[in-house]
Design goal:
single chain; 10 helices; two-stranded antiparallel ribbon; mainly alpha
Length: about 240
């Protein structure tokens, strides 16, 4: 365990810096997806698609495996417990930046909406982004970013709360719904964006059952009752 990270001051700096990198990775994604994926492909589709799939898989494996309870228990024995979440945020954010930055152009054009339709879709993306932010606020943002754990250093761990109102009464994972809407409402859906949208949403579909298993373990019967009341996991009437 590094001595520099065994004291509250350096731990808070590490956690806050990680939270800022996380926010920066989201802004980078929005800019890259909106304006940086219009490059002209210079090669065939298959190698580019395979590269992108492998790239996202590396991010997804970390995002899923690191989040599981067993891995967390191992980390707590080798890393300052207050920084366990922050380390996850650091690695996930940096990997996400790499994924967005290295995403390869893919040939093809699925749709290119112009005029008022384009404006409507862009406004839909803005609404989806706001929906994600509002949904995330219902969770503890400081907890998700790893900052709260450092601020509560030495104190009792906060009791997790199951929020079931607002967007959470529509689907059990509204942040994933907002993501899905944002990526698929791109008014110019070329092969590059289509690959990103498809791969990222397939990952969410695969990840949801694992996340729900952890939520059932955390909240017990309350989450079981919530699951029965709110049928849809991610997209109403679809999944």
């Amino acid at each position: 365990m590094p001595n520099a990270l065994s004291r509250p001051g350096p731990q808070l700096v590490f956690a806050v810096a990680g939270a800022l990198v996380f926010v920066g990775s989201l802004f980078f994604f929005v800019a890259r997806y909106a304006w940086g994926m219009d490059g002209v492909p210079t090669g065939p589709a298959v190698p580019a698609v395979l590269f992108n799939v492998v790239l996202f898989t590396v991010f997804a494996l970390h995002h899923s495996i690191f989040a599981r309870s067993g891995i967390k228990d191992v980390l707590k024995r080798t890393w300052p417990p207050a920084l366990e979440r922050s380390l996850y945020v650091w690695i996930a954010s940096l990997l996400f930046i790499v994924v967005c930055g290295l995403w390869q152009p893919v040939p093809g054009l699925w749709w290119d909406v112009q005029g008022s339709g384009r404006t409507v879709m862009q406004l839909g993306q803005v609404a989806a982004a706001i929906f994600v932010v509002l949904s995330a606020r219902r969770l503890d943002v400081l907890d998700l970013s790893g900052v709260l754990q450092v601020l509560d250093l030495g104190g009792p761990a906060p009791t997790p709360k199951l929020y079931v109102r607002g967007a959470y009464s529509l689907v059990r994972h509204p942040i994933y719904l907002g993501w899905t809407l944002f990526v698929w409402l791109a008014p110019t859906m070329n092969g590059t964006r289509f690959t990103f949208a498809l791969v990222s949403c397939l990952y969410l579909i695969v990840a949801v059952p694992f996340e729900e298993r952890d939520l059932h373990r955390l909240f017990g019967r309350d989450y079981g009752a919530y699951s029965k009341r709110v049928r849809w996991k991610m997209v109403p009437f679809v999944y």
